[in-house]
Amino acid sequence: MIHHRQLQQLSETQNFCNEKEKKFLISFVIFMVLLINPGICASQNDQTTPGQMPEVYVPSEPESNAQDAAVSSESESNAQNTTVTPYQSGSNAEGVVSEAPVIYESYSPIDRIPDILIPSDPEGGTEYVIVVEKETQQLFLYENKGTIKKVLQLNCSTGKARGDKIRSGDQKTPEGVYFFIKEHKKKELAPIYGSGAFPMDYPSLLDRMAEKTGNAIWLHGTNKPLKDRDSNGCVALENSNFDMVADYITLNRTPIVIVDKLSYSPSDVRIEERESILSLVSGWENALGKGTYHDYLKFYDPEYLPDISWWPEWNKKRKTIQTSQPPLSVESKKVLIIKHKAVYVVLFDQFIKFSGTDFPAGTRKLFLTRREDRFRIIGEEYQGKPRFEKRYKNQFVAAYQNLEIRREYEKDENIAGMVDNWLKAWSSKDIEKYGSYYAGDFRSQGMNLKSWLDHKKRLNKKYDYIHVSKDKLRVKKGGKRCTVSFVQIYKSNAFKAVGMKQLVLKREGGQWKIYRETWRKM
Q1: Per residue in 105-115, pLDDT tens?
Q2: How far is CA 98 from CA 40, 79, 138, in A?
């Protein structure tokens, strides 16, 4: 280690100082090295066993056991220094990583990007992508906002065994596109996991389809010196580096892409792929909003059969408002595209748009591949826990239910507004406008609409002023009609009355109209 080299150079220096001064300076250097790096000479017996701490969280799966974070605390008395470049494994003869993180404080767009990254739509906001290259034991953080920019490059440690993870306990780090689904704070963990941990959603849908097993694959810190390939499958970072990366992670949104070796290509090459994928997503959503069952299935690979048991219920509900203006539509926002080998993972927030309002329909994840020069869907799932009641088979149906609730609420608002305007026309003695709120077949107190309006004209001439207001409005819906009741306060220069008004409304010409009207004194 560095302090041994310093001592050796110091002891071999000729004519540096007298013997007493040399002994003092050697003792001082040893003291300062130990003060600054208290763990650098840790004993082999300095190990923490999570099982001794019953109050902390320890996963049960072997992929993330007490050894997963790291590293045996081997004595480094025989360690040798190495020169570490940003793209090489930063380890010494014992495999202990010593390179400082590379931080791109004034980072700018790069011409050649990892071919796993697809520049996102600039209007979709800023996304961050974590990339792990197992061959070099490097972790990269990229910003994706129309252009790709490198933010961080850090040393990391992956599984002891090389290759892609296949089964539980094989000590391999899985390769693919994953998302962080939970965060464990330091206080929840055994010390071996350092300052925190983010579990990934391994195995993914494609992993499960390939019958891969295992779980508890994390990105976490460590309280031990970091060594190359020293975990049981997790990705480990030094605590200070983990804390930096944690600031960029959004659960169920930020991807971590794990590969054996990265390859690079010009950034503009990926733009065409992005546009083709966005076109597929747009067409697929148009089929959801307006198309047929067959239109929808055209976007799927023939070898993949999606779950469409929810379609009849969705189609039935969808038809009830397809004739409305503006029409219903299905739209996506914040589209993120990541490529791993021949598979493209597309993550986006989906909405049902109606009457100027977006109703969330979950965060959707599509798996695409090219078939005969066309992208096809080979898998799909929702990212994160579904936010809808269990009785709904699909988030579209749940979103529609929210839309229906909103429509009913808007109906209530429209009815309340209609009653207010009707009372205002009555109070202003505007008999023409007042009459426009009544249905053509209105009847009350034995009078039809014409007789009713003639009666109101006579009253308007009788009083100098009229003021009518309401209180405690209630709306009760039932089929094509609804009943509105409220306390009516009537005032004029010669007459005052308070009573319970009841209006029966019906739809006529797309609007609510008064079909029946009664009043009783209170």
Answers
A1: 545 567 789 99
A2: 11, 11, 13
Nearest residue to 383 via CA among 281, 253, 194:
253
Number of C-alpha atoms within 13 angstroms, CB side, residue 489? 7
Could you give the CA distance from residue 314 to residue 239 in angstroms, rounded to a whole number? 48
Residue 369, pLDDT score? 96
Scanning 148-238, the segments in alpha helix (DSSP H) are 205-209
Nearest partner of 91 among 238, 246, 242, 244, judged by Cα:
238
Alpha helices in 248-321 (DSSP H): 269-289, 293-297, 311-319
Closest CA to 434 of 447, 413, 420: 420
pLDDT (tens digit per residue) in 183-195: 999 999 999 999 9
Beta strands 481-492 and 496-508 are antiparallel
| Run of H or E residues at 359 | strand 357-371
Q: Parallel, antiparallel, or unpaired: how do β-strands 218-220 and 196-199 relate?
A: antiparallel
Single pTM value for the model:
0.64
Which has the closest alpha carbon to 377: 307, 466, 480? Answer: 307
What mean pLDDT do residues 225-235 have?
96
Provide the edge-to-edge strand list for the sheet that holds 343-354: 329-340, 343-354, 357-371, 374-382
